[in-house]
Structures are given as structure tokens and as C-alpha cells.
Design a protein that fits this description.
Blueprint lengths: L3 H19 L2 H15 L3 E9 L2 E9 L2 E10 L13 H17 L6 E10 L8 E9 L10
Parallel strand pairs: 3-4
Antiparallel strand pairs: 1-2, 2-3, 4-5
Length: 147
């Protein structure tokens, strides 16, 4: 059974003390999010997909659903949960990028979902807190998402 602490310890040993300062927080967050999602039975099929219209951090398959995942990692929650940064504008960019992804892979008939993984990872080597919001938002500004 997956435990967040196990994934964190694994990442910590992978990066080492010196490298953890060098490795960007976002990269460590995406790796931890991927490990968390895999522990839930989701299969990671793509990472860091970029189009002119937007970027998709993680693309997973959950049963028969293609899931587009935005990962937000912050050092603290002082300014609110990291997931609050996924505003309408970001949702629109993700929707357009997801549409491009589905079109290029001929997956327009697939069921889809947009999830957000929010991670607060303190500087002081404290354990990260992970929150997974399933179906965090519906497709926005799709301009005919499935046309």
C-alpha cells in the first residue's frame, strides 16, 4: 500500500541533500504527484506536454478515462492552497491543450477529466502535504472541445 511518506523518502534519497536544493520545486512536486497518482491505480502516459496554447503537467489513464492533471507545488500555504492558482484562465489553457492532445492522438471519443494535485512542500525538509482534487473543473473555453 502506498504511503506518502514512502514516496517522499524515495524522492529525497533520489535527489540527495545537495541536489534537492538544485532540483526545481515544481519538478519534485510533479514526481511526487505522479507517484501518488500511480498509487491510486492511475497509469501515467505522458508528462510535460507543451503546445502553443498551453501545457499539460501529467496525463494519466484512470480506468477508461483520460485524465489531464495540473500539479501546483508551493513552499507554504500562506497565500492559500496551491490549487487556487488554477484559475479560469489556466483552466482554459489546459482545456485547449487537452483538446490538441486528444486530436493528435485520435482520442476525441475518450471520456476525459481534469484533476489538480496541490502540494505544499516546506523548505525545512518537512514532509510535503498532497491534496488530489478529482474532477476539479469542467472543460472551459473549448471552442468545440469535441468537434
Amino acid at each position: 500500500m502506498f504511503r506518502l511518506r514512502d514516496a517522499w523518502v524515495k524522492l529525497k534519497s533520489h535527489f540527495g541533500r545537495r541536489d534537492s536544493v538544485i532540483a526545481p520545486l515544481g519538478v519534485r512536486g510533479e514526481q511526487l504527484a505522479a507517484a501518488h497518482l500511480e498509487s491510486l491505480g492511475m497509469r501515467i502516459v505522458d508528462r510535460g506536454v507543451r503546445y502553443p496554447c498551453g501545457e499539460l503537467d501529467l496525463i494519466t489513464v484512470d480506468g477508461d478515462v483520460v485524465v489531464f492533471v495540473e500539479v501546483k507545488t508551493r513552499k507554504s500555504g500562506r497565500r492559500g492552497a496551491p490549487s487556487q492558482a488554477v484559475d479560469r484562465k489556466k483552466q482554459g489553457r489546459m482545456t485547449r491543450a487537452a483538446l490538441q492532445y486528444l486530436k493528435t492522438r485520435r482520442l476525441l471519443q475518450s471520456r476525459t477529466r481534469f484533476d489538480v494535485v496541490s502540494i505544499v512542500w516546506p523548505d525545512d525538509a518537512g514532509e510535503p502535504a498532497v491534496s488530489h482534487l478529482r474532477a476539479a473543473f469542467d472543460a472551459r473555453d473549448s471552442g468545440g472541445m469535441y468537434s
